[in-house]
Amino acid sequence: MKIFKKNQLAILVISLMLITAGYLNYGIGYNSKSMDTSTELENNVDLASLGDAELVNANTLVDNKEDTANLENSNQNENLQNNNQNTENNAQSFDNQAKETNSNPASNYFTSSKLERNVMYSQMIERYQEIINSSSQSAEQKAIAQEEINKINEIQNAIMISENLLTSKGFNDNIIFVNGDSISVIIGKEELKPEEIAQIQNILSRELHSEVENIHISVK
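Below the sequence we write its predicted structure tokens.
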């Protein structure tokens, strides 16, 4: 009878130990699952926060691009307005010049005549320069061509100085033509006083190395 009680006691103790071990395992498993769930939740929260941060940065980037685009458009519009203003100013300037030319046809004559004269000299220099550059021309011909170029340059320089001097003396509209020893000058006035004629002759004879009798003065 005592042996049976001891066996029952032993069985009872073992049962209690098994129950305790099962309870402990369940508690540990529950805590582990809770920790995993909590960690997963934290990770989800972190990912969500990271997603929000990227979204905010993306929105900021879009705003910056929009601001940049608006600034560029504003600069382009400003440049366009400036160009339009410059175009209007140039057009107004051209209109004023055209009005001045139309109101003073004499000035237009002197300007166009000087241009035609200078073009003629340039063409003459080009022809002589072709002779110098040609392999079929002799050295003597090339030397003559170079002398002619030097003469043209001297004449052009003397004419320019003379016309500037005439302008400084009040003969604003003037043009000079040189044909060998003969020099013709046209002055934009209705008439010239004797002292004015003498002044013009003095300038031309000195700068163009010409005799007074070879200087022909006319008015326009």
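The domain at 104-219 is CATH 1.10.287.4300 (Helix Hairpins).
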